Each structure stands twice: as structure tokens, then as C-alpha cells.
Amino acid sequence: MPADIPAPATATAEAPHPRFAVGVLAFCGVVVAVMQTIVVPLLPHIPALTGATPAAASWLVTVTLLTGAVFTPVLGRVGDMYGKRRVLVVSLLVLVVGSVLCAVSSHIGVLITGRALQGAALAVLPLGISILRDELPPERVLSAVALMSSTLGIGAAIGLPVAALVVENFDWHTMFWVSAAIGVIDIALVLWCVPESPVRTRGRFDALGALGLSGALVCLLLAVTQGAGWGWTSARTVGLLVAAVVVALIWGAYELRVASPMVDLRVSARPAVLLTNVAALLIGFAFYANSLVTAQMVQEPKETGYGLGASLVVSGLCLLPGGVMMVVLSPVSARISGKYGPKVSLALAAGVIGTGYVVRYFTSHNLWLIIAGATVVASGTAIAYSALPALVMRGVPVSETGAANGLNTLMRSIGQAFCSATVAAVLANITFRVGGRTAPTLHAYQLVFLIAGGAALAALLVTLCLPGGRTPATGTVEEHRDVPADRKGGARTTPIQEGA
Length: 500
Hints:
Layout: E1 4-6, H1 21-37, H2 46-50, H3 54-82, H4 84-104, H5 108-120, H6 124-135, H7 138-169, H8 174-193, E2 199-201, H9 207-230, H10 235-255, H11 265-268, H12 271-299, H13 312-317, H14 320-340, H15 342-362, H16 367-395, H17 401-429, E3 431-434, E4 437-440, H18 442-464
Antiparallel strand pairs: 1-2, 3-4
Helix pairs in contact: 1-6, 1-7, 1-8, 3-4, 3-5, 3-6, 3-9, 3-17, 4-5, 4-6, 4-8, 6-7, 6-17, 7-14, 7-16, 9-10, 9-17, 12-16, 12-17, 12-18, 14-15, 14-16, 15-16, 15-18, 16-17, 17-18
């Protein structure tokens, strides 16, 4: 395993105000997460606005998922090796460039390119978590990491209503100009407030490993996201799935032999890490169903017998209380993890998410009860997203925090991709005719709730199989002894618990 080494002296200069680093990094996480959902309210209008086909318009979401999945673990590893703040700034700069491309053009090809660049910025989340682990005193790590991890859900909850307001009241390019401006502010704040981590991983960057991982992910996610349109038994879909398996096997064999792998599969195979990543995939699936279904369900016309005929803005606002609960509950999750361990937090979270879907199954006709059910699901997600990084950090060396959290974030994204495909298949195939149009039946939505609740139950069972142990903030083994224990301003690297 590559050893941890301190960065060169030129890379360890302290930022002027490191005490603000937590807030700045969390703000960056929210902005990046908002970018993942900001075009969703715009999708039905894209064909008329750009002259593109609906299939081409759908790539504004698909390409973001693909580039986010590919670049999150890759840039996490690059950050471990060459400087986390440096790579985080580059990721934000890529987001700005992508936003500007979308702001200046109505050509679908340019828009897809811009969205691809925005998706690549998802690496900000694991990089921010890694910086917090390296820089904060042990007693502050859990709460800060919990907040950073929850920004993925917070941004998703905020992005839909904000985008809906922009679409209904301004030129649609406005939201991309705003996102570019906020991205520039993010970069300035990071350079001002966030110190560069002194922790580095020795070795050479595994370019072939990165290429192999990217190839397997692209094949898998293309098949999953486009399978419904192409046909699940079509040659393209089956061929991509087979290619994903073959490339993944070749990549895995290569990674086990290389001295400095892109992903340390031996560490990833530890029960604490492997089961945490499986739980992340299932939690990602369960969480995303809530976001996908809520807005669509309340917008269905009243003629369906269950729809409320709500506007785009109202449907987006249904998710906003869940975003507020994510902010409120992330420190609560940290306290639970600190006292009882992150395993208990994740198990509790999975149970809350499952309970939320039980509420949703029986309360599909009343707006306020729909909001209540969606908020319960979001509350469970907040606790889960706060606990997952703590579980990851307990099982990996400090020098691999960026790559390991990138892989965990990737597993959430894969879970969301499978959820999107599942929801689309259910809602497209269980329908009825009403008011001269085809609409999903109430049973279709309830089936989605049952499937998502089943994913939460599966996550609970996986979590119960996790080994116990103390959190990173209370562990006794310090794996990075080469790194100075104390730095200017009181920042210290974080001891972790060995032997997950």
C-alpha cells in the first residue's frame, strides 16, 4: 500500500481563514449538487427551445450522470496524489466553463458538452470530505463531514424549485449565467479560506486503471440509462452490458497487479468498505425515487383521480422541506455516529427511509401528507449520507480518502441511475387513458414506493452485516505518522480506526 507523505513545503501554506473552510466547502457541495438537477424542469421545453428531439434533450441529464460517475473516483485519486484543494479548484473551474457554454448557446450539442463539464464537477464532494478529514481536529471531523456529504441531497432538493422559478419567470439561459457566477465565487472562496492538505500518496498516477474504470462505467451506465429507449434486449443494450462486465474483469485483474492502483481493490474488498459501498448504492436508489416521483405525481391532472394538478414551482417546493431537514439533521447524525458509531446511524437512516415510503404508499391524495412522506424520506437520507463517509474513512488509509469517498459517491450515482431506469419502466408500463392522454396509474406510483422501500430494507440488512468499531474521530491508530500532527492554526490530520 502506498505510504502517506507530507506535501512539499510550498503546498502546505495555510489559507488566511481556515475556520471558514467547512462552510465554504459545504457551499461548494450544494452548488455542484444543484447543477445535477437544474435542467430537470427545463427538459420538456428543450425540443421547442433548441429544435432538438426529445431523445437528444434527455442527454442533458444522462451525460451529467456519465461524466460525474467517471470523474468522481478519478479526480478523487488525483487529489490524493497531487493536492486536494488544487484538484477541487480545477473541478470548480470546469463547472464554470460548462455553465458558460450552456449560457451562450441554444445548440443541443453545445448544451450537452456544457452539461458534461458540469457533471465532472461532482468530484468536489469527495475532495471536500478528504480536505476536512486532513485539516480539522478529530472532534470536528464527524460533524463537518456529515454536513459535506449531505450537500448532495440538499442541492437536489433546492435545485428543482429554484430551476422551476427561473424557467417560469426568466430566460432559461439565466440559470446557467447564475451558476457560472456562483462557481467563480466558489473558486475565490476556496482559494481564500481552504488550506491545501499536506497528505500525499506516493506513486505514479494509474492512467490505464482510470481508463479501464471509465470504460466499464460508461458501458454500464449507458445501458442502464438508455435501455428503456433502445429496448432491454436490443443488441446495443446487451452488448454494452457484456462489454461492461468484460472490461471490469480485465480492469480488476490489472488493478491487482499494478503498484499504485487507481482503486486499491484489496482495501475495497474489506467487509467494512465493500458493504458500505453496497449500502451506498441501495441508499442512492431509495433516495432518488423520492425526488423523481414527487414532482411528477403532484403535477398529474386531477382527472387521474390522484393527481393534484400542481404547477411546476409548487411541485418543486414539495421537496424543499426535505432539503431543510438535511441541513438540520446532518449534525444530529454526526452526534449519533460519535456516540454509537456510524453503523448505528446508517441502520437508523435506512429504517427511517423505509418508514417514509410506507407513509407515501398510503398518503398519495393529499398534498401536505405527500410533503410529509417525502420529508421523512429526505430525513433518513440526510442521516445516511452523513454516516457513509465516516464508515468509509474507518476502513481506508488516510492517503486514499479522496479515492475511497469518490468510489462511495460513485456507488450512490449508480444507485440513482438504476432507480431512474426502474422508475421510468414502471411509470411507462403501468398506465391508463384519461383526458385524452396516457398517464401512470396510482398503482404504478405505489409500486415505485414499494420498490424504493425494499431498497431501504436491503440497505438496512447490509448495514447490520457491517463490522463494528469506533469512528474516525475516536480511533486510536494513526496511519499517517509521517504527517505533522499539528499545523499552523491548530489544524491536525485525523486519526482513524484500523482493521475494518
